[in-house]
Amino acid sequence: MSSKFLKILLAGVALSVGTAGAAPAFADAKNPVIGFTVYDMSSFISLGKRGVEAVAKANNATLLWNSAGMDVNAQISQFQQFINRKVDAIVVAPVNSATLTPQIKAAKEAGIAVIVTNLTASPDATPYLTSYVGPDDVMAGANEAKHMMTALGSKGNVVVLQGPLGQSGEIDRTKGIKQVLAQNPNVTVLAIQPGNWARNQAYSITQDWLSRYGSKIDGIIAENDDMAIGAIQALKEKGLAGKIPVTGTDGIKDGMRAVRDGTELESNLQDGPLELGMAEQVAINHVQGKPVPATAMFIMPELTKANVDHYYTQMYGDFNGFLKTLPALINANLASGNYGNQ
């Protein structure tokens, strides 16, 4: 999240996943009903959903989960359904950071708290928000670019795969990448294009770039691991995987494996279960009258071949075991203010 947003932000069926239009919510703080709408079911969000479910179960909360499928209008409709149902709180990972202000305002006027997670909302929505739970995406973008500059010796040509234009994740990671590129004038950006967080789109775009630029491409900066994996697949078909460095962000399972085998140079661990699970816990805590942070900012650990095994074992060696300990970890992190600790 950018410093601009930081300055203006505020200082299912128990537990099966339901839809927004089911039976009326229960006005019971001990059994809160939380509406949760996300932009799409990417690998990061799909993994994060498991953490949300674990937290909801630990708190006897009813989780109503919806994915907008990258459709702004679908998310607006889902949001309105949550308001109509009179859920106790709404958590949203926005399709587009410039939308949803009218719906967020309407929720607040209806007495429903709104927690934004993973991606920021528009600044004009700030007065109506209860909390933001998410990453420092500017730093993540900068980390990627710095590792790429080191690998290239601060000279050569790169291409950049962006997230969906207008999402804060794309805006802020692109900002961090460009900040570092501006300090490295001997590096040229041959192309920059949205891959929309999607492997298949990144694969097709990278194929096109390889045909167009060939050996001129020295590195690929992808703003998430799914796109990095798509790019790596295109490189593999040309016998170039591991020869052209690729960076990413999120630390999804396939991303960590790629870092481990050397086909992905670096990633930044955005722990989906921890982050989205914390957003769920913040929503529940607010409904129960407990204090919640206005901003819970995650600093993502950098993942390299030197340290990736530690995080891989923690998250994926016994993922079900990790989920069992997750609610306690989230509560401890909220108490300490070290939100990304794991």
For the largest beta-sheet, the strand count, sense and barrel status come to: 6 strands, parallel
Return Rg in Å: 20 Å
Estimate the mean pLDDT confidence. 91
Low-pLDDT stretches = 1-26
How would you classify the helix and strand content by structural class? alpha/beta
Instruction: Specify the oligomeric state.
Output: single chain
Number of helices: 12
Strand element count? 12
What would you call the shape? Answer: globular
Numbering strands along the chain, what is their spatial order in the largest sheet?
2-1-3-4-5-11
Task: Write up what this structure looks like.
GO terms for molecular function: carbohydrate binding. Residues 34-290 form the Periplasmic binding protein domain. The protein is of the alpha/beta class and 342 residues long. 46% of the residues lie in helices and 16% in strands. Strands 2-1-3-4-5-11 form a 6-stranded parallel sheet, with helices on both faces. A 4-stranded parallel sheet has the order 7-6-8-9, sandwiched between helices. The chain has a two-stranded antiparallel sheet with strand order 10-12. Helix 2 (43-58) runs parallel beside helix 10 (272-287), helix 5 (137-152) runs parallel beside helix 6 (168-182) and helix 9 runs antiparallel to helix 11 (308-317).
